[in-house]
Amino acid sequence: MEGEPVYGSKPAVSQGEVPTRIIIAEPYPDLQQFYSLWLRSRGFKDIIITDSGKKCVDEFYKSTNGDKNTKCSSNDFPRDAVVILDTHLEDISSIQVAKQIFDRNPDQQVIFTTTLPSDIISQEISAAGLSKCSVLTKPFELSRLLSLIHRIGNKNSLQ
Amino acid sequence: LTASNSPDTVTGRKILLVDDEADIVSTFKMILEMNNFEVDGYTNPLSALSNFKPNEFGLLILDIRMPVMNGFELFKKIKEIDNKAEKV
Q1: Which terminal residue of chain A, N or C, has fewer Cβ atoms less than 10 Å from its own Cβ?
Q2: Which three-class secondary structure state does DSSP give residue B57?
Q3: What is the strand order of the sheet B39-42 is part of?
Q4: A101: distance to nearest CA of chain B, Å?
Q5: Which DSSP category does A21 fall into?
C-alpha cells in the first residue's frame, strides 16, 4: 500500500485469528478504542481492555480460573496471554498491578507502555523484583508492540 | 497538525492523514470514519503531496517523524500549494 491512499475501513493488513489473549490496562478512552480496533484488525479476538489497575488484576484473575484467595495450578494460566500496562493508571500503580499478576502467575509476561523515560520504569521494575517485563516508551511504533506480543505469545505457548 | 480552516469547521470536509506506519493510518482512519469524517490516508508523504489539492481538506493530520520527508517538510510543501493552510 506504500504510496497509495488507504481507502475504506478495512485494515491495511488482515491476518487470520490469533489465539493470544491480551489484557490491557489503559486509562485513556481514545487509546482503549485505538487498541481495540488495531488489535482486532491484526487478528486478535481475545482482547480485554480495562481502564484501571484493579479491574485489570480482576480480569487477569478471572482469566486464570480463580479469585485472589484461591491457589491455582500452572494449567490454569492461558499459555499465550500478554498483559499490557500503561504507567499512568489512576487507582494503583502499574508496578503494583504487575506484582499482583506475578503473585498469581510468576511466568506471566508484562509489557509496560509509558511516557516516562524507560530507565525510570526499568529501575522501578528492578526495585520491585519483577522479571519478564518489557518497556515501550511512547511514542512507539506499533510494529514494535506487535512483535513483542507475537514473541511473548509464541514463547508462552512453547513452554 | 495543519488545517486550511479552523478545526471546528472540518465537519463535512475531508481529512488528510499521513503517517508512515500503515497500522496507524488504517486504525485512525477507521476511528475517524466511525465519527462520520471522510479520510484520505497515506503512508508516503510524497504521494500525499502529489495528490494534494487546495481546498479539498478541512484538516491535515501529519506525522512528524517520517522517512523521506518529515511532517514539517510536508507541511511546508503543502503551504506552497495552499497558502491558507495553517498549523493548529
Answers
A1: C
A2: strand
A3: B39-42, B14-18, B57-62, B2-3, B86-87
A4: 30
A5: -
Percent share of chain A, pLDDT over 70: 76
From CA B59, how far away is CA B5, in angstroms rounded?
7
Q: Which residues of chain B make contact with A9, given a CB cutoff of 8 A?
A: 29-30, 33-34
Q: By the CB < 8 Å criterion, does B46 face chain A? A: yes
ipTM tops the 0.85 cut: no
Q: How many percent of chain A have pLDDT more than 90?
A: 60
Q: What pLDDT, in 10s, does the model give residues B28-78?
A: 999 999 999 999 999 999 999 999 999 899 999 999 999 999 999 999 999
Q: Which of B23, B30, B46 sits opposite A9 (nearest CB)?
A: B30
pTM here is 0.81
Considering CB atoms only, which of A4, A33, A34 is closest to B47? A4
Interface test with B, best of A2, A6, A28 (most B CBs within 10 A): A6
What whole-number distance in Å separates Cα of residue B60 and Cα of residue A24? 30
CB atoms near residue B31 (< 10 Å): 16
C-alpha cell at A114: 509509558
| A137 shares contact with chain B (CB less than 8 Å) | no
Mean pLDDT for A41-66 is 91
- What single-letter amino acid sits at B39? V
